[in-house]
């Protein structure tokens, strides 16, 4: 029985507890059973947008490392838009997997990932439709927020990190580490080792730490005079996998 990995993704934080993961998992399991595959590991991208590229997919990067290290070379996804909704990102991820010698199968869209020109065209058309659908959703949400703003005079978006209970303590800890001269990568490692949670419950990454600390200063928080200048000493850590 050939081993395979299952890759799942939901884009919104609120979808993590919804039916997205169970639905995708059930579809992949059914396909694997019907074709004699055994799912040995699952990789869940939790609350990651479909417009996010390969470098900002922690679960996808973890899966690539596992593919390289243990001999499994087959990845099953429910649909290709679980890889990405943006066509160019979708194609770049597929090309990257294939270049490394790995096979990817969309269980709801069989054979779309092979190199036949007609299949490539169909895959790209479906990717374009997924991208168009996402653009429509964004436009509808923007219109709804604008109507609320006109009617009520305001429309609150997603609250920044630090506005919820317990988050400010994490920020203060990060500021202390920054004052000790730690780069963002070390701060992220320390927050993870101390099990200080992100809002979604995932891992800390250097870019996340950088964004939150800089946002604090922009919002009027007292800057830390002992903190190094990130534009000079910490520039390499702005290249991250958040």
Descriptive notes:
With 242 residues, the protein is of the alpha/beta class. It has 2 domains: 2-126, Resolvase, N-terminal catalytic domain (Rossmann fold), CATH 3.40.50.1390; 167-233, no CATH class. 49% of the residues lie in helices and 11% in strands. The protein has a 4-stranded parallel β-sheet, sandwiched between helices. Helix 3 crosses helix 4 and helix 5 (167-179) crosses helix 6 (184-193). The longest helix has 36 residues, at 117-152.
Q: Would you kindly provide a brief summary of this structure?
A:
This protein is α/β, with parallel strands linked by helices and 242 residues long. It contains eight helices and four strands, in the order E-H-E-H-E-H-E-H-H-H-H-H. It folds into two domains: 2-126, Resolvase, N-terminal catalytic domain (Rossmann fold); 167-233, no CATH class.
Shape: globular
Radius of gyration: 21 Å
Total of domains: 2
Number of DSSP E strands: 4
Largest sheet: 4 strands, parallel
Into which percentage range does the β-strand content fall?
A: 5-15%
Tell me the CATH superfamily of the largest domain. Resolvase, N-terminal catalytic domain
Q: SSE string, helix = H, strand = E?
A: EHEHEHEHHHHH
Unreliable spans are 221-242
| Overall helicity | 40-55%
């Amino acid at each position: 029985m050939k081993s395979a990995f299952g890759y799942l993704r939901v884009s919104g934080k609120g979808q993590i507890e919804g039916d997205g993961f169970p639905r995708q998992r059930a579809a992949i399991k059914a396909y694997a059973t019907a074709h004699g595959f055994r799912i040995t590991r699952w990789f869940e991208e939790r609350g990651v947008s479909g417009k996010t590229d390969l470098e900002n997919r922690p679960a996808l990067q973890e899966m690539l490392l596992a593919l390289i290290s243990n001999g499994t070379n087959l990845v099953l996804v429910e649909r290709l838009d679980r890889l990405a909704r943006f066509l160019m990102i979708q194609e770049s991820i597929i090309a990257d997997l294939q270049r490394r010698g790995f096979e990817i199968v969309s269980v709801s869209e069989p054979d779309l990932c092979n190199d036949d020109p007609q299949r490539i065209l169909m895959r790209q058309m479906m990717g374009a439709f997924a991208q168009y659908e996402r653009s429509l959703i964004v436009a509808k949400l923007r219109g709804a927020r604008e109507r609320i703003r006109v009617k009520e005079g305001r429309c609150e978006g997603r609250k920044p990190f630090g506005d919820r209970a317990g988050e400010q303590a994490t920020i203060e800890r990060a500021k202390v580490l920054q004052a000790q001269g730690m780069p963002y990568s070390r701060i992220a490692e320390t927050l993870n080792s101390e099990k200080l949670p992100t809002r979604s419950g995932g891992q800390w990454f250097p870019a996340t730490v950088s964004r939150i600390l800089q946002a604090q200063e922009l919002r009027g928080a007292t800057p830390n005079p002992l903190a190094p200048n990130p534009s000079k000493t910490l520039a390499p850590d702005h290249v991250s996998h958040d």
